[in-house]
Amino acid sequence: MDARTVRPKIITLSGPTCTGKTHLQRRLEERGYARVVTATTRPRRGDDAADSYLYLSRAEFERRLATGQFLESTEVDGHLYGTPVDSVNRIAAAGRHMVMAIDPEGARAVHSEARRRGWWCFSVYLDNPLQRLQERLEARRRSDPAPNEDAYARRRASLVTQQREWLGCVGWDLVVDHFDGEAVVEGVAGLLQRQLLQAHAEEGFGLGYGDREGAAGGR
Questions:
Q1: Which strands sit side by side in the sheet containing 39-40, from one edge to the other?
Q2: Which strands make up the sheet holding 34-35, listed edge to edge?
Q3: Residues 34-76: pLDDT tens digits?
Q4: Taking a C-beta distance cutoff of 8 angstroms, is the pair 83, 77 a contact?
Q5: Is 30 a member of any domain?
Q6: End-to-end CA distance of the chain
Q7: Per-residue pLDDT tens for 154-199?
Q8: For 193-209, b where at least 16 C-beta lie within 10 A, e where not — what string?
Q9: Beta carbons of 176 and 209 less than 8 angstroms apart
Q10: Alpha helix (H) ranges present in 68-174?
Q11: Any domain includes 218
Q12: Does residue 139 register a pLDDT over 70?
């Protein structure tokens, strides 16, 4: 690899339901990262932005899965989720770096593929006390104009399992035990930005390259 070649860089964000992954993802987008849009068969919720997911029918998702169009895929609460290979490749070809909110098994698959390609990757696990997560999930349910009560019940039940099993299933690069409050969000975003700048420096670009990509948002 040429000393001046910028490797694509991926940060994965994982953690139980309602931890704050999407919030941190948005902060990193503000600092120059491109968000990898996940494909899903889940119907769009009332609180979803139009570009939150690539919404597919189950038949279309399974067609793409069978033809190798996903970097990884999983099923949660009866809905399929996957990371489109073409989306990752487009972002990498444009020389941008990626952030994705993803479950631990997906993170493992993404990092394995990133290493195979010689890309830089950094995994983050976010957590909060169980009561706080339950409160956030209930607030989300109340704000949902058409909540699927069965789905919310499954998500409530899964919180305990997620906290018990997910932390130890991947060798995370960073674990944040109490991810709550804007000061913590900004602190973690700043730490990740420093990791990125260090990676640039190791590739021979120095800090100025990261600043040019939007790293000036770091505080």
A1: 54-55, 39-40, 79-84, 70-76
A2: 34-35, 98-101, 9-14, 120-126, 174-176
A3: 988 889 998 877 666 667 789 999 999 999 999 999 988 988 7
A4: no
A5: yes
A6: 32
A7: 888 888 788 777 877 768 898 888 887 788 888 888 888 888 888 8
A8: bebbbebbeebebeeeb
A9: no
A10: 85-93, 104-117, 130-143, 149-165
A11: no
A12: yes
Contact of 174 with 124, CB cutoff 8 Å:
yes
Q: What is the CATH number of the domain that holds 203?
A: 3.40.50.300
Q: Print the domain residue range for 41.
A: 9-213
Q: For the chain, what is the domain count?
A: 1
* Residue 180 placed within a domain: yes
35 in any annotated domain: yes
Question: What average pLDDT does the segment 108-136 reach?
Answer: 86
How many angstroms separate the CA atoms of 174 and 14, rounded? Answer: 10
pLDDT of residue 57: 96
Given the DSSP bridges, would you call strands 98-101 and 9-14 parallel, antiparallel or unpaired? parallel
Using CA atoms, how far apart are residues 152 and 150, in angstroms rounded to an integer? 5
Q: What is the DSSP letter of 48?
A: -
Q: Is 110 or 4 the better-scoring residue by pLDDT?
A: 110
Task: Give 133 or 55, the one with higher predicted confidence.
Answer: 55
Give the predicted TM-score (pTM) of the model: 0.75
Query: Does the pLDDT value for residue 5 go beyond 60?
Result: no
Tell me if 68 sits within 8 A of 37, measured CB to CB: no
Residues of the chain by 3-state class (helix, strand, coil), percent to 5: 45, 20, 35
Burial of 148 (0-12, 13-18, 19+ CB in 10 A): middle
State CA 18 to chain mean position distance. 13
